[in-house]
Known about the structure:
Layout: E1 5-10, E2 16-21, H1 24-32, H2 34-39, H3 48-72
Antiparallel strand pairs: 1-2
Amino acid sequence: GYESLHITVMGPKARWVEVQIRTRRMDEIAERGLAAHWKYKGVKEESTLDNWLNSLRESLEESESNLSQKLTD
């Protein structure tokens, strides 16, 4: 299964930055394991899940931008 240590920290300009810490073995699993296989198994167009994840990411980035503005005001 997928293995990686994740931490999110506030970086420059009050932007959130995700850091992933992996050993070589963890990286191999993350890049070539089941999760990677699901993403790259030959699907030609974005799936409904991909669209939903992209929408979620955009919403989080908007929230992050609003939070950054409040922190700098």
